[in-house]
Amino acid sequence: MKFGGTSIADAAAIERVAGIVRARFESSGGDKPPVIVVSALADVTDRLIAATRLAEDGDVERAAASLDDLLARHLSIASALTTGTRRDDLVAAVREEFATIIGLVRALAVLREISPRSLDAVVASGELASSRIVAAVLAERGVPAVWIDARTIMTTDAEHTGATPEMAQTCARANEVIGPLAADGHVAVMGGFIGATAQGVTTTLGRGGSDYSAAIIGACLGVDEIQIWTDVDGMLTADPRIIPEPQLVRQLSFAEASELAYFGAKVLHPSTILPAVSKNIPVRILNSLRPEVSGTLITAEARPPDGRLSAIACKRGVTVIDITSTRMLGAHGFLRRLFEVFERFKTAVDVVTTSEVSVSVTVDDTRRLDAIVDNLRKFADVSCEPDMAIICAVGENLRVDQTLFGRAVTSLGRVPLRLVSQAASRRNITFVLRDADVTQAMTRLHDEFFRTVAVT
To answer: What is the pTM of this model?
Structure first.
């Protein structure tokens, strides 16, 4: 059971989570106690990153004051939800965690430089503190919870701020540490998002990595189900910020969920599905505000009713890069040279279309765009078009009902489309268009496939 930051945002939210976990523990009769993975409290990771930026600018007092505010927030929650010796121990542990980080930030302010390794050390404190609090609150409510430092389980490489888990070592540690606890009826509680190298240096898995952590631990332990608890009922047919009344998607395939997550569905981190797929473990997305709702179940195979897609996702803030060269015609090696540029600058490409003499790609990470364009211009003409978006229509039915593609394109009518593509898997249709046209396009697609269909 993974609980995100909004699910443990304050004392009331953590109290609610404790009730959910206790109910699950009691329903299992203690034979299959859940493993709990939590994010940092809502907005804490952003605040920690901001504090490091202040330190880098030399504003150590503002950085320290910000961290003091975070400490006060954690202590307030800890004091409100625990009592006696347990509260004293929890408060002392949280104070010690923040004292270490405040000391580190003050030292970094002298250097005026924040390395990825230092940043990981600072932001990891969010999950370390929140998991301690949740474990103590569960114990206070009668659940036999045990706090585990995630860094003793999640072993990663040394790619700081975006580390890759070493699965063999992580699974070995999970089974050595968590396995016996679960066998004795204890509920293990740990922070997501964080890990450590084999040498014990703190790392993080990148933003959204708590989902990934939960899936990895679940896969290592061979659990029956991986639950992602958030603040929405599950995967929806569209982004509710764009479509006022989207529908709940009751079931998705692993492949569909991966496409939706990658192309903008914020409920699920794109990497989450991978460990679950490897062990064929169902993933369920649930709402901690409404635990009675069944949520979205993600399994190896799923298919929506005939005549419809599964859902629509949207990624905004996209830039289209057009690369044109007559040397491409009938030549080999051109595409290799082109994509080596993106590899060199560690920039992922989302959508690719090609013709005889041109290639168009989309990127949403433009931090190294100028350097990429400069390198591409050594062998081709290059132009960029910012303020674009990607809409991805996803559904297993696309593989069996060839009319769905035509319906999707036709529904967009006069909406100007920059690029259109369909993946080889034929599970999605991707449209690249102006960001200004997103609302109109999403509305038309949603009306076409979901307006009159009742979800069962």
So the answer is: 0.87
